Amino acid sequence: MTALFASPLPEFVNSAISLVVAFVLGTMIGAERQYRQRTAGLRTNVLVAVGAAAFVDLGMRLEGTRGAVSTVAYVISGVGFLGAGVIMKEGMNVRGLNTAATLWCSAAVGAFAGADFPLEACFVTAAVLSGNTLLRPLVNAINRVPIDESQTEATYEVQITVPAEHAGPARDLLVERLEAAHYPVGGTEVVERGEETVEVVATLVATAVDSAELDAVVAGLERDERISHATWSVQTAD
């Protein structure tokens, strides 16, 4: 912070100012997260920002610029582990990625403050708040646009339900019909759905499909007397 003043400040005052800047900016980021009831809210973001500022400031006081650079590297990796703790996988969905990214950005704000770059810390804070607030309408607008399967990159699976004794021939038929429609199969799996019923799942190599073509394949499979049910599903890629 000495660059903001005409004369050098005592080290403890300089450190105090860095921590206050990190606290205030971390509060701004955390308040928005708390308002939206995210897992990592006000206190977590403040603590991350203040902690990053404290470590970077300590590194600077001990070894100058070289110490700050070394400390920042450890802060980045350390906050990465912390962010991983708020990411949760629920079935095919992953939650908490935005919260983890926000924590990472809070650490960046604290690192700037600890390295005596308060204006840069403010710029990062403004960018984080803009990303979490101003971009929400755009995200909502994009999510409301109907999905065109031919334009997305995803993992596609076709599932058929058959009696267990017909699993082998049904799998061969499934692969044959998909390859005839020019959708090569990357692999198949047989999943038990009871004592007498199994589900044959084929994963496609293609990452983009024509939904009408897959619908036609599924409809053709359902006309086979051995198959009681056929469908396809998609998991959007990250």
UniProtKB/TrEMBL annotation:
Keywords annotated in UniProt: Cell inner membrane, Cell membrane, Membrane, Transmembrane, Transmembrane helix
Keyword Coiled coil in record:
no
Tell me if Transit peptide is a UniProt keyword of this record: no
Q: Which residues cross the membrane?
A: 12-30, 42-62, 68-88
Alphabetical list of Pfam families matching this protein: MgtC (PF02308), MgtC_SapB_C (PF21770)
Q: What subcellular locations does the record give?
A: Cell inner membrane; Cell membrane
What is one GO cellular-component annotation here? plasma membrane
InterPro entries cross-referenced by the UniProt entry: MgtC-like_C, MgtC/SapB/SrpB/YhiD_fam, MgtC_SapB_SrpB_YhiD_N
What's the protein's topology in the membrane? Multi-pass membrane protein
* Role of this protein: Virulence factor required for growth in low Mg(2+) medium and for intramacrophage survival. May be involved in regulating membrane potential by activating Na(+)/K(+)-ATPase.
In the record, the note on similarity to other proteins reads: Belongs to the MgtC/SapB family.
Q: What is this protein called?
A: Protein MgtC
